Amino acid sequence: MGRMCAVFISLICSALVMFVDHGSTESLVGVACKPGTFLKNYYCLSVCGPGFYGNSVTGKCEKCASSCRTCLDGDVPNTCSSCKSPLYIQGTSCVQSCGQQRSKGPPYRQIRLARAGTHFEGRVEIYHDKKWGTVCDDSWDINDAKVVCRELLLGDAREAVTFARLGPGSNKQPIWLSQVNCKGNETRLENCDHPAWGNHSCGHFEDAGVRCMGPDTTRECVDECGEGYFKVKGQKACGVCMASCLTCAMSEANCSSCDKPRFLRGNTCKFTVETVSMEIPLTASAKLAIPNVAHARMELLPPFAQVAMTTDILTAPSALRTALRSTWLKSGAYVWREKGQPTWRAALKYIAPEPG
Q1: Record's Gene3D superfamilies (predicted)?
Q2: CA 35, CA 93: separation in Å to the nearest integer?
Q3: pLDDT tens digit sequence for 76-109
Q4: Which of 105, 147, 198, 301 has the most CB atoms around its CB within 10 Å?
């Protein structure tokens, strides 16, 4: 009987240990999470989450300093890894002015999180055809969430949220995307494989969301502005490029490069249908330079040799010379040689996706 009582008391104590509040001023001797984890809301966690840090002294998840949006594990709450607006992260401190460095604020994005509980989670909304719409959760997974979190500069993804668990969109909002299939390394959600815009069989009860791990790297002190920004003349600040630009110079609208699937035309990134006619000399290894075109892929249909394109060079292997009749490329490029003439000619037609 005594042994059974001892076991019963032991079980009660074990249950009490599971429900110790991390904010309690009382503690039980010997109660601790294993090394590398911290007590929060009755659970031992390896990552405390945004706004909290793992206190190496108490073994608990505790709140970051008020200026920090996220902070690092340790014995103090003010080792910041990102800051609340209008402050900037400089090293591990949140500052109002970057001093000799440049201040860099949030970029323009055509994607956003409709806030749920924290700054790092929400329903995914994407801007298209001058309207904000939602994304259906059909095939929505962690790779899709990774792209969203990276695009928003909110760190890695913690969870891909389905069934509108972070809130449904308005019935007035369109559902822009469905069956999104990201590899996880894309720079923008729109670059992932997906059916045509607005093509879906979903309701807003299926709106997709994400939870990101942080840190928020949209407000920083930097030495160089980097992609999506330009140096503001006469100021220690980085201006923000238009959302369509990958890089820009001197002003937000002066694009110098574009993120696929857009193409650079002059100083503007556009979705275009472009036809370029050029001559291919009849040589063993002919090359055709296509100016200001990136991210195009071309190949000859069988039985002709493959034509490979990297960046702005279309390489035509010597086997192309044996093609005595015209042939279409899969991309819509037309290659031919006039009878008795020593050179090939090509009319290259690039058909980009519909405007975004």
Answers
A1: Hormone Receptor, Insulin-like Growth Factor Receptor 1, Chain A, domain 2, SRCR-like domain
A2: 27
A3: 999 999 999 999 999 999 999 999 999 999 988 8
A4: 147
Distance spanning both ends of the chain, measured CA to CA: 75
Quote the CA–CA distance of 111 and 108 in Å, as a whole number: 9
- Please give the Cα distance from 155 to 277 (Å, whole number): 44
Residues comprising the chain, all counted: 356
pLDDT value at position 31? 61
Residue type, 227: E
Which uninterrupted H or E stretch holds 142? helix 142-151
What are the residues whose beta carbons fall under 8 Å from the beta carbon of 249, sequence distance 6 or more? 230, 256
Which stretches of the chain drop beneath a pLDDT of 70? 1-31, 261, 271-356
User: Residue type at 28?
Assistant: L
Q: Which of 76, 79, 73 is nearest to 38 (CA)?
A: 73
Sort 9 into a burial class: Cβ within 10 Å, 0-12 / 13-18 / 19+.
exposed
Q: Which tokens go with 315? A: 């390489």
3-class secondary structure, 198: coil
Q: How far apart are CA 352 and CA 329, in angstroms?
A: 15
CA separation for the pair 171, 207 (Å, rounded): 11
Q: Single out the residue of 56, 61, 55, 29 nearest to residue 42, CA to CA.
A: 61
Q: What is the DSSP string of 44-91?
A: EES---TTEEEBTTT-BEEEPPTTEEEE-SBS-TT-EEEE-TT-EEET
SS3 319: helix
- Global pTM? 0.66
Nearest to 308 by CA among 279, 277, 331: 331
What is the dihedral angle through the alpha carbons of 34, 37, 42, 48, rounded to the nearest 10 degrees?
A: 180
Cα distance between residue 54 and residue 60, in whole Å? 6
- Report angle CA 66, 72, 77 to the nearest 5 degrees: 40
